[in-house]
Amino acid sequence: MANKNQITGLRPVGQVMSANPYEAGSVVYPGDLVKLASDGQVDPCAASEAALGVALSYASAAGQTVLVADHPQQRFVVQADDATVAAQAAIGLNYNITVGTASTLYKRSAMQLDASTGATDSVLPLRLLRLYPEIDNAFGDKVDLEVKINNHQLGNKIEGV
Asked: Which candidate, 11, 42, 8, places its Cα nearest to that of 147?
């Protein structure tokens, strides 16, 4: 059976270790990987940016409060954008994100793991930990993966490989 294709951005795995309110600098959707900008506000990350955490709530405009899962050791589940993450050998590599068009109807992020970017490059924002253990999930197209933030703004080091 094929993996389901349901883009939801990133979601915390297990207990949320830390969630704190931040002021949004722009529109932020639940599931967005966010960064702490120089103005003290949080904005959705672009590819290859260090991250603060993952938004757990919605902010429709700058100045609103958004709740962020911001613990450096928090794990998340995210869908791969294609079939490039095809085997156990991908575990431990670092990956970039793709930023799609969020759902304004469902208030849901469209961020995915950019499966073609797997490398040991320590500036890539996500580190692949394992295949997410769920029914009907297997390596291949649209696989759900468990990751952590590799280049975390509150962490004391970059994980790297």
From this structure: 11
